[in-house]
Amino acid sequence: MSNLEKRSKNIEIQTAEAEESENGRYAIVETGDGYDAVRLLSPTIQKKMREYFGNDYIAAVPIRDFLIFWHREFSLTGQFIEQVENEYAAGGEIKLTPRMFLVTKEG
Questions:
Q1: CA 66 → CA 36, 90, 98, distances in Å?
Q2: Does residue 20 register a pLDDT over 80?
Q3: Distance, CA of 86 to CA of 42 (rounded, Å)
Q4: What are phi and psi of 94, to 5 degrees?
Q5: Dist. CA 28–CA 14, nearest whole Å
């Protein structure tokens, strides 16, 4: 975990807003270093996401090299779920899961 934290310390987290409210936010980690999906477990990344989204948010890791987060009440959740499923289906040897995760302060 300490190695993951070191590798995650200065990575770029791409943030965007699909709509003007706080609910319209999403973020992507896509460094290509092979550790993007596992960064879901990083306390540093989780802290940054809580600061951006609030205490609860959705995360998905359809493939090893792609981690996406979005607000729990995001109006485009259906479209994001479809994109996650497409990424997973096309993932080949690096696909992980088409499932979404609700991340809270408790885990």
A1: 6, 12, 12
A2: no
A3: 25
A4: -105, 10
A5: 5
Across-strand partners of 27?
15, 69
Helix (H) or strand (E) holding 15: strand 14-17
DSSP-derived 3-state class of residue 101: strand
CA distance 4 to 8: 6
**Integer Cα distance of 49 and 44 in angstroms:** 9
Residue 16 has phi, psi (to 5 degrees) of -155, 165
Q: DSSP characters for 31-80?
A: -SSS-TGGGGG-HHHHHHHHHHH-S-EEEEEEETTEEEEEETT-TTHHHH
Q: Taking Cα atoms as reference points, which of 45, 48, 49, 55 lies closest to residue 106?
A: 55
Which tens digit of pLDDT belongs to each residue from 29-74?
Answer: 999 899 999 999 999 999 999 999 999 999 999 999 999 999 999 9
For 1, counting Cβ atoms within 10 Å of its Cβ (0-12 exposed, 13-18 middle, 19+ buried), the class is: exposed
